[in-house]
Design brief:
mainly alpha; two-stranded antiparallel sheet; globular
Length: 383
């Protein structure tokens, strides 16, 4: 008698394969006018595997990824997966969106497209999420589509809308925190929001809080976190209160990592405490980020480490995209004697808008330094 896995594979293959090829009339939703299996895919065992073939040719997965995913979903027929892909494409999911989604949540292929998926897509669209927003978010967080529309998604959105009072702010929250749908509304989210409201937290800060997973914490732990942030002296009426909550809820090792990195540059206890109170996010940066940015400020620009401690928010900006281009311009202007370095505010130079920086430091000196724009764009080195 043949081994069970051979009989099982044979029965499975008969559903939509014949002689190792897809049966006539079955078409793919992946690409233009492609047959269901444009490539004959051989499984690692040397046999045709129609699930793997479908994942490769209809969903855009690599053979390696499709082989792994095939252990999580078995396609007995193509009706459901074809309907799912058709629905996703109708909602303008790209090939990349679909392959990412299927790789992360392969069982979506056997969901009921019309009864399970469509109502959720329609609802999220109705509150203002664009099709591009849906494709971008759901392809990376497809588990949302397995949540109950009536029991979780709609009640959560109704509560959020009652808090933020506008669809635009509701969409803003969902675009930044789909994990809100994993929270317990009545036990955690509502009590947590009510607590910070009682402390006088304004709506703008509550919106910021709702974009973070900390609002999903169990109420007791959330209360402890709020109390700790208050002990640090943060004002619940300011956004820094929420940022401090985000920083202090991390693992203790995160704080120690940052603390040790700053001390290597000579920061004292007072420097670290003062920096955290000015910008809590400076205590969640990676060691690599801290060391590289401090090295540039101190060793390339020649600034004192304690000067950087007075403007900790600059450490969060991209070294390559913002800090180096802007300070390269500043360095040239200082060397040319066009500006005085001691009169510059490091925080302002880094954080001002692109338009303001260009007008103040680049476009102002076309005759004195013709190549200044090239310096800013990295075409001419200044270090």
């Amino acid at each position: 008698m043949a081994p069970n896995f051979i009989l099982k594979s044979f029965r499975f293959a008969r559903v939509f394969c014949r002689d190792g090829q897809p049966m006539e009339g079955l078409a793919s939703h992946f690409g233009l006018e492609k047959q269901l299996y444009s490539t004959r895919v051989i499984s690692p065992a040397g046999q045709d595997d129609c699930t793997v073939s479908y994942l490769v040719n209809s969903c855009g997965l690599s053979l390696e990824a499709a082989t792994l995913v095939s252990h999580k979903v078995k396609l007995q027929t193509l009706d459901k997966p074809n309907s799912v892909l058709a629905l996703l494409r109708d909602y303008e999911f790209s090939d990349t969106h679909i392959s990412t989604l299927v790789r992360r949540q392969p069982r979506i292929l056997v969901a009921d497209a019309q009864k399970t998926l469509l109502p959720k897509l329609e609802f999220l669209s109705s509150i203002g999420m664009s099709r591009l927003d849906l494709a971008n978010k759901l392809s990376h967080d497809p588990w949302v589509m397995s949540r109950s529309l009536e029991n979780l998604i709609i009640p959560m959105c109704s509560f959020l809308k009652s808090v933020v009072l506008s669809d635009d702010k509701l969409v803003y929250i969902l675009k930044h925190n789909l994990y809100i749908f994993s929270g317990n509304l009545s036990k955690n989210v509502i009590p947590n929001v009510e607590l910070v409201r009682k402390l006088g937290m304004p709506q703008s800060c509550i919106v910021l809080l709702l974009t973070s997973i900390i609002v999903l914490r169990e109420s007791e732990l959330f209360n402890q976190l709020v109390a700790e942030v208050e002990q640090w002296g943060f004002d619940p009426r300011k956004s820094s209160f929420v940022l401090a909550m985000n920083a202090l809820c991390r693992k203790e090792t995160t704080w120690k990592r940052c603390d040790q990195a700053y001390r290597r540059w000579g920061w004292s206890d007072n420097d670290i405490v003062a920096a955290f109170r000015m910008d809590p996010l400076c205590m969640i940066l990676s060691e690599k980020k801290i060391m590289a940015t401090m090295d540039f400020f101190v060793n390339k620009m020649g600034w004192q480490s304690h000067t950087v401690a007075k403007y900790p928010h600059v450490l969060s900006y991209s070294l390559e995209k913002k800090i180096i281009p802007r300070l390269s311009v500043v360095r040239v202007l200082v060397l040319k004697g066009l500006i005085e370095e001691h009169k510059l505010n490091l925080g302002s130079v880094i954080s001002v808008s692109e338009e303001y920086f260009l007008n103040r430091f680049v476009n102002k000196y076309p005759n004195q330094v013709p190549q200044l724009l090239d310096v800013y764009q990295g075409k001419v080195a200044s270090f």
